[in-house]
Write a structure and sequence with these properties.
Keywords: Signal. InterPro entries: FAD/NAD-bd_sf. This is FAD dependent oxidoreductase domain-containing protein. It comes from Eucampia antarctica. The protein is globular. It has 25 helices and 20 strands. With 666 residues, the chain is an alpha/beta fold. A hairpin with a 5-residue loop joins strand 15 and strand 16. The protein starts with a helix and ends with a helix. Helix 19 packs across helix 21. Among the domains are: 56 residues, no CATH class; 172 residues, FAD/NAD(P)-binding domain; 113 residues, no CATH class. Strands 1, 2, 3, 9, 10, 11, 12 and 20 form an eight-stranded mixed beta sheet that branches. A seven-stranded mixed beta sheet has the order 7-6-14-17-18-13-19, with helices on both faces.
């Protein structure tokens, strides 16, 4: 193999050749061409330095070359908010740290700081109820606030990107709310994709107006394709008939592209007009909790005193230091790794619909890194709405994602990114060489750890995790905005009643983050779409066969079955319908499915499905009776009322009965 300097010398030699030979040079990556063009006009004194520069460029991976040439403005916090090479390296280091970590048991009830059996370092302390820990100023202010019987706010929301929506909903209910954001409270440049019915849920809550939707939605297209194929070719009929795959198209699912920068700014301004307070670029050092008095949020800046509140909401996402403290010693049960880009240069004529979940390869054998099934997702960007200007665009966002565990043998993000560059031309045939054919706006990357014990139960009173910090989103999803629109009314109602009735003990707040069997049942889908390290006798076509058959049967069952599932809502009736149809269509596949997921996991899953059935019955038959009792004078205790309402919420959302079916919308 030629070394980088030899490659650079060859490139220089080509520059001196006649024009007929310069076509060979056109295949050299743009970064190398740019260096050589500059070198052609330089003096001989600079030649060696230019050679070294070119050699360095040639030694870089394609990922690094592309990212270093991509516009780096508009960076924000949160998943997908930053797309620089430095940010990628930090994410890579965090992913490696997670893979290399070992799960261990930690007993928080052992009252010792000197444990000879613990070689994992001291547990991080971000939240404390111990007056000997934390900032003394927090405890002093809590004592003085208690004496005056007044906190600074009813609620402090930590993390503003999605927290601003919770804050606005609570401010509308008459509570005083402060949002604390470590950076600027601004949306990323990358569009969020969502459905109109989900956006309208925010309008129903007065968190958004129709004008807000019109201002922030920059892309609207008919719908999205779903498909599962062993190779990229046109198919007809079922998987059992063609042996390749199956694809379908669903209207009005994730077919809106929302500009987060516009949306968040409008929600923030609405929140401020309602009397809310936003503290931007205000990092948090910790939280001190007095169960009887309140909570104090300790700010990093020594110039600002702690903020006190009756309740703290953790909206800091899956990397929340609060969740990290509570999950000390745990490794995630699953991970969704995502890489992708937003780029111009695609064929405008075909850039008119999205892909929600799509495969065109079997399971990839990555050797020591394990086996991975790659999925694609894609959305057109900036094509306008309802056929209005511009009407078309060559800009598209494409994601490649996969499900796995956090085993130390799993591949790096850069390995996934390099596979993305290699496989993208097959997925998007209008391009041949991504590095030269596309104008990259952003390079996207993230990993989303998920835990079976979600949503996260509170460990402390007066503190509740919401959104991604609680794990309320589906383990199949890598975006929390859709889950927010679904749960915002339920959570804001529960938090408001908790504040009014004084139900701020961790046991009561835990009723807001109650067990939801449909969320737990979704774990089986992630497990079925991943392959364990060392798992033997895996058919590379397993995932495509499984999903092609299931999606075909869901489509046959109608829009009331397929659409909720595509919006991350698992309903008992739809689940039974698709599973029954799949078994009849491919009965001899069942032993292979059982062998793939394992009998213990299957038994656990059947338990969650059974609870989905029970929750469905309870919501339909028990909740109407219980609602009339709770709303009457028969139940006088405020705490009992609170707990019964949360139980009914759990039945409703845990069975998927909160989802308004298309037939009911009409």
């Amino acid at each position: 193999m030629m070394n980088p300097k030899a490659v650079a010398m060859l490139a220089l030699a080509l520059m001196a050749t006649p024009h007929s030979m310069s076509t060979a040079f056109s295949s050299v990556p743009f970064a190398v061409r740019r260096n050589n063009n500059a070198l052609a006009s330089s003096s001989s004194v600079d030649v060696e330095a230019a050679i070294d520069s070119t050699a360095t460029a040639a030694a870089k991976s394609k990922t690094q070359r592309i990212m270093e040439q991509t516009y780096s403005g508009g960076q924000t916090g949160g998943a997908g908010g930053s797309s620089t090479w430095d940010a990628f390296c930090k994410a890579e280091a965090n992913w490696k740290r997670l893979r290399d970590s070992e799960a261990f048991f930690f007993d928080p009830q052992r009252l010792t700081t000197d444990d000879p059996n613990n070689d994992h370092g001291q547990r991080p302390i971000f939240v404390t109820e111990d007056g000997a820990q934390g900032n003394p100023a927090c405890w002093e202010k809590l004592r003085s606030s208690s004496a005056e019987n007044k906190m600074d706010y009813d609620v402090v929301v930590c993390g503003g990107t999605l927290g601003i929506f919770f804050a606005t909903a609570l401010q509308l209910k008459g509570h005083s709310v402060c949002v604390v954001e470590g950076g600027k409270l601004q949306g990323r440049e990358q569009e969020w994709n969502i459905s109109m019915d989900e956006m309208l849920e925010l309008v129903d809550l007065n968190v958004l107006s129709q004008e807000d939707i019109d201002a922030s939605v920059t892309t609207e297209f008919p719908g999205c394709r779903s498909g599962f194929k062993n190779n990229e070719e046109q198919t007809s009929g079922s998987y059992q008939e063609n042996g390749i795959g199956y694809e379908l198209f669903t209207e009005d699912v994730l077919n809106l592209g929302v500009a987060p920068a516009v949306l968040l700014e409008r929600v923030k301004q609405r929140f401020l007009k309602l009397g809310g307070v936003v503290k931007e670029e205000t990092p948090i050092r910790g939280v001190c909790i007095s169960e009887t008095n309140g909570a104090a949020v300790d700010l990093v800046s020594s110039e600002e005193e702690p903020i006190t509140a009756s309740l703290v909401l953790d909206c800091m996402g899956n990397a929340s230091p609060i969740s990290r403290q509570q999950r000390y010693g745990m490794k995630p049960d699953g991970v969704c790794c995502v890489v992708g880009t937003c780029a111009a240069g695609y064929d405008k004529a075909t850039n008119t619909v999205g892909d929600l979940i799509y495969t065109n390869t079997p399971i990839q054998d990555k050797g020591d890194d394990g086996m991975l099934q790659y999925f694609w997702e894609a959305f057109p960007v900036g094509i306008g709405r309802d056929g209005n200007e511009p009407g078309s665009s060559d800009v598209k966002t494409t994601y490649m994602f996969t499900y796995m565990d956090a085993d130390k043998k799993r591949p790096s993000l850069e390995t996934l990114m390099e596979d993305y560059w290699k496989l993208l031309p097959t997925y998007q045939p209008s391009i041949q060489d991504p590095e030269n054919d596309l104008d990259f706006k952003r390079v996207l990357f993230a990993f989303f750890p998920t835990y079976k014990d979600s949503p996260l139960q509170p460990q402390w009173s007066r503190l509740l995790a919401t959104g991604d910090a609680s794990g309320i989103q589906s383990p199949l999803s890598f975006g929390g905005f859709g889950a927010l629109t679904r749960h915002l009314e339920r959570i804001s109602d529960g938090v408001s009643e908790a504040l009014v009735s004084g139900c701020l003990h961790k046991d009561d707040l835990g009723e807001i983050n109650a067990y939801t069997p449909n969320l737990s049942a979704a774990w089986m889908f992630q497990k079925a779409m991943s392959v364990r390290i060392g798992q033997k006798n895996v058919d590379p076509k397993f995932v495509n066969r499984l999903l092609a058959t299931n999606f075909e049967k869901m489509e046959e069952s109608g829009i009331d079955t397929i659409k909720p599932f595509l919006q991350d809502v698992t309903r008992f009736d739809g689940l039974l319908s698709s599973l029954g149809g799949s078994f009849l269509a491919d009965p001899f596949f069942m032993p292979e499915i059982i062998g793939h997921v394992g009998i213990p996991s299957l038994v656990e899953w059947l338990g969650h499905v059974s609870m989905m059935g029970l929750y469905t019955v309870n919501h339909a038959l028990v909740s109407p009776i219980l609602t009339s009792i709770v709303d009457s004078d028969l139940v006088k205790n405020p705490r009992t009322k609170f707990q019964l309402r949360r139980k009914m919420d759990a039945w409703k959302f845990g069975s998927g009965s909160d989802y308004i079916l298309p037939r009911d919308q009409k």
